[in-house]
Fold this sequence. Notes:
By secondary structure, the protein is of the alpha+beta class. The protein has one domain (2-97): Alpha-Beta Plaits, CATH 3.30.70.
Amino acid sequence: MYTVFSTFLVPDDKANEVIQIYQQRSRLVDKAAGFIDFLLLQNDRHPGELTVQLLFETKEDYLNWARSKEFKQIHELEKKYPDQELASIIPKINKYKVVAT
């Protein structure tokens, strides 16, 4: 398995707004080959620190998703978000091969 974490910081007072956006996400990734799971995580101590976790069967499955037109479509929508403060946030990305479960 292969997992990707995208961590980003938003102002604490906008965390719930971002969470609602993700609760209503398009679910395009759910249809990607090898997709296993999506999670949105919120830091217990810092509510404005949010992490998207994606889990795929293989690294190749993730890379195919990241190169797909659906991936580009989702990320183009983010750039057009009305709140420019949120639209300009660049996440920190970490990628891992799962070596034990």
